[in-house]
Amino acid sequence: MSAQTENAVVVRGLGRRFGDFRAVKDVTFGVAKGEIFGFLGPNGAGKSTTIRMLCGILAPTEGEGVVAGFDVRTQAEKIKDHIGYMSQKFSLYEDLTVEENIDFYSGIYRIPAEKKQERKEWALQMAGLVEHRHMRAGLLSGGWKQRLSLGCAILHEPPVIFLDEPTSGVDPISRRQFWDLIYELSGKGVTVFVTTHYMDEAEYCDRIALIYRGELIAMGTPESLKRDTMREDVLEIHCDRPSDAMELIERLDSVKEVALFGKGLHVIVAGADEGAREIRNLLSEAGLGIARMEAITPSMEDVFVSLIEARDKLEDAQKEVAA
User: Fold this and answer.
1) Residue 23, phi-psi category: left (phi > 0), alpha (psi -120 to 50), beta (remainder)
2) What's the pTM?
3) Is the same domain home to 210 and 233?
């Protein structure tokens, strides 16, 4: 399989079996050079298995793929030399200092001696740790560990980086600063392949792929997914006692899904006008005042829930037919 010059990652029919279990099934997509590509899915959906195949760690049992110009089946070691990888565990040696961690990864990536100091200073500057270079990594805050881990992962200036839940467990300000770094890398032509369970972060990606039970169920820009994949309408409701209101609302036949969202509720309904009328009457009868109710553009979380529910219903229907 030849790599497409405009794509940094190309996979066709990629799959992985563990015995009789198919963890990843017939996955096909391409990621353009310099693109921020979000890979989303619940735990156990196949995200990590797919990333391990793309990073040359796990051989696929089906299909084919090319990453940074190298074949995932036959050139796994070359792929490892041309990518960066960062997981939510940050892969730092906590007993070593900041500087010693950078020196260690310089050796791992075989950075030429004449470039080591330059890359070290770049990593320290990028992470905001110039003044803390002698501090033990284990004493750093979550945000600093995150930036240091990113610096170590891309010391060798790879054209493609894989970030697996990179902002898990860090505060919102550090998350936002980390995404600023991702934008900066993307602007320099680096391809960023990122998984996240924060749905607001999915909005920052150029394109998103949703994987569920090992299969891709949707792919597109955040805007196109919200516009084209949601057949239902979404109502945002601010009312008295939202938890009690949620229990009442979810009993309505016209309601597909209801969830707490901030201080209010997001309700997925077949039609906004009819749904709003039924909900208003229901809450009024229960003595629950409504401060505000309006149809809104769905969030990525709304889209995600809707797509998964639709896939579950399709599978249930197919099982009934087969039975």
Assistant:
1) alpha
2) 0.84
3) no
